[in-house]
Amino acid sequence: MNNTFSFNRFKNLLLKDGKMYIRNFGTSLIVWCCLNAIFWIFNLLFGSETMPPVRFGMLCVWTALAMMMVPSKVYGNANLSREGVGFAMMPASSLEKFVSMFLYCAIVTPVIVFFGGYLVDAFLSIFPFGGFDKPIRLYSMNEIVQMFNDTEGAVRAAEMDLPIEQVFPIGVMRASLYSGIIQWAAIFMLGNMLFKKHKAGKTFACYLGIGYVLSTLMGLAMVGNSRRIELWLEGFNDYSAEEMVHLWHNATIWGMIIGIVITGVLLYFTYRKIKTQKY
User: Fold this and answer.
1) Which residues of the chain fall short of a pLDDT of 50?
2) CB-based contacts of 67: which residues, under 8 Å, 6+ apart?
3) Is 132 helix (H, G, I), strand (E, B) or coil?
C-alpha cells in the first residue's frame, strides 16, 4: 500500500490531519497572523510610524518562521519510535501521508499566515492612530519586475541595451518564487523526519552550516582562480548586447532549474523517510 493513492483514503487522512493541525498549531497560527500588531502597539505608545514596506517585510519573516515550526508541531511524532506508532498505523499509504504533510506545511501554512497577517494589518490600518497610515500593498509579479527595472542595476543594463524582461522573464521569476517557498518548507519537512529532538533548531543550524561551507568553498575556489576569473570578466567587454541577454537569460533559467531540482530532491527524501521509517 506504500505507493498507492486512494482519494477516499486521502480525504479521510486530510480531515484527520486537519484536526491535528488545528489542535497542535491553531493557536500558533493566530499568534503568527497577529504579530504585526506589535508594531501598531509600539507606534501607539511612542507616537511613531511603521511604513508598509517594513510591515510587508516582517510579514514575510513571520511566514517563513511559521513554516519552520509547523512540521515539528504537527508531525513531530512521525519519526519517534514510541510516539510515532500512531502515525505509522494510520490507514493511509506513505504517499498519501507525504502529500497531506506537504499540503499543510508548504501550502496551507504560508497562505494562512501571510494573508491572515495581511488582513490583520489592513484592519489595524483603518484606525487613525497606531502609525499604520495605509494598508500593505500586495504587488503583482509585473509590478515587482517594473520596480526592479527602476533600480540602479537595471538602469545600467538599459544603458547597455539589455532588456530586463528578457533577462528575467516574469514566468521564470514566478516559478523561482514558488519553488523557493516550497523549498523552504521541504527543508524543514525533511529535518522533521531526520531529527528526534529540537527539530526546527537543528534543521536551521544545518541549513546555516551547509550554506557556510558552500560559500567558503566557493570563496576559496575564487581566490585560487582569481586571475582566471578576472580574465573571464574582462571578456564580457567583447560581448554584444544580444549575447549578454542570451547569457544572463540562460543563467536565470539554470538557476531556476537548479532550485526546482533541489526542492524535488528534498521532497523525495522526505517521502522516502516516511516510507522506510522503522518503529
Assistant:
1) 152-160
2) 105, 106, 109, 110, 113, 184, 185, 188
3) coil
